Amino acid sequence: LYPHMTIRENLEFGLKIRRTPQAEVDRLVGEAAQVLGIAQLLDRKPKQLSGGQRQRVAVGRAIVRKPSVFLFDEPLSNLDAKLRVQMRAEIKKIQARLRTTTIYVTHDQVEAMTLAHRMLVMSTGGKTEQIGAPLEVYNKPATVFVAGFIGSPPMNLIPGRIAEGGRALAAEGDVHVRLPEARGSLEGRNVLLGVRPEHLETCEPGAALLNPNVDFIELLGSDSLVYGHLGADKSGARVAARLHTSVVAKEGRLPLRFVAQHMHLFDPETGKRLET
Prior knowledge:
By secondary structure, the protein is of the alpha+beta class.
């Protein structure tokens, strides 16, 4: 924002450059100020505003020009965590009201999940990994990159080989992971087994599909993140489980299970999802 101008002057600047009639300028600025909730700030200077208010003014300066497309390039990256949450909600409301096509670039997956109607996940070098609705991308990642990038903590990815009959996954060393249902069509094939932390649950040892050794636990309030590893030493695949805090996890082995509908299998060479 131009620091020597008032908020009103900042909003008017682009319109006056275009020689827009003053009556139209007043109308457009008034509409944008009402949409953004900054009508009471129009006579202030940017230095008198909070970070979130300044960000709304910056958005307003684009709104008054009635663009065909909004281009946002990490607009919330310089705000603190609380303001980012607030501004996400503001941008979502603005977008819903204006219904203007918006392209929004972000490294923050939470922003992408909460703001997007359609999401495009790009990897290094600008390669498009997947395009789809946020929940579609989350629930059915097309590649290992998407599976490991979308989600916090990311999806557990366990390398192994489908055993005889397609009912077990022989992972590293002495580790055998049981699959909840047979994958006979993949018998003898190397795969990456993917399962999200929230789709793991504790069970009796005899019903366990995974038996990781617990390394440490993060208490988050309503739930906790339990981190562990497969195998006798810590060189095995890492496993994270999101469990309710009522579940008491201790050091040692933690028997876990998951259902077949939440299991993902990927080709370790191509990184692509295996449809079975």
